[in-house]
Amino acid sequence: MTNPAFAPTGTIDVRIHPSRAEMGRAAAALVATEMRARLAGGAGLRMIFAAAPSQAEMLEALVAEPGIDWGRVTAFHMDEYIGLAEGAPERFALWLRRHLFDRVPFAAVHAINPGRDPAAAARAYAAALDAAPIDIVCLGIGVNGHLAFNDPPVANLADPEDVKIVELDATCRQQQVDDGCFAGFDDVPTHAITLTVPRLLRADRLVCVVPGAAKRDAVRRALQDPIGAACPATALRQHPRVVLFLDAEANPDG
């Protein structure tokens, strides 16, 4: 359901559901509807996906949605750790392979591979993204209010770069442990490649999925705080077509 209490904060359409499963199904249904409508126009579709446990329910439901011509969809993802082994299960590209990329027949999947020259990898990925417009971004919000790996307070909401190397802050690294992605804080890499905030906001449609009580304060700040680097997710209010899906635990008004 839509929560009218958040209407004055900006253009974000906030939809709150009782459980993570219901939230995921509702978000997937919206994404699927957008995909079918755009594909019906005859053109291909270019999408960016977040890799995080918060997205699992939505991706599971999206894979099951009928009537999507995945063979005309090109996929990207929004961030990747630097310094992990090629086959490390914690890598975001491999997480998305398990949950999405290997489960439906995409036309193409562009994975971020930092390799031995992360700066060159970032430039190449920016070029691939820039080859044509991005239609849909499926994203989340971090506990610290980050978008992708654009952490406060250093995120640049007017970043001239599209993809860059960043240092992860302590809260962001701890979230990866709390989410069960790493055994301990010191196992989490200190640096990553990320799409920047302006690159994400250049997409035509943003669908943001944010479950869990740990995200409640970040959601509140995203909707109510002044737009700025202290909470990068506030930048979502600058985009005209954002839908934010929450479960009951993430609802700051609950």
Number of strands: 10
CATH class division: Alpha Beta
Head-to-tail CA distance between termini: 13 Å
CATH fold category name: Rossmann fold
Count of discrete structural domains = 1
Q: Give the overall form.
A: globular
Percent in strands: 15-25%
Helix content: 25-40%
Low-pLDDT runs: 1-9
Order of helices and strands: EHEHEEHEHEEHEHEHE
| CATH architecture grouping | 3-Layer(aba) Sandwich
Mean pLDDT: 93
**Biggest β-sheet description:** 7 strands, parallel
Detailed description of the structure:
This protein has 254 residues and is α/β, with parallel strands linked by helices. It has a single domain (11-226, 237-250), classed as 3-Layer(aba) Sandwich (Rossmann fold), CATH 3.40.50.1360. Helices cover 30% and strands 19% of the residues. The protein contains seven helices and ten strands. Strand 9, helix 7 (216-224) and strand 10 (242-247) form a beta-alpha-beta unit. Helix 1 (20-40) crosses helix 2.
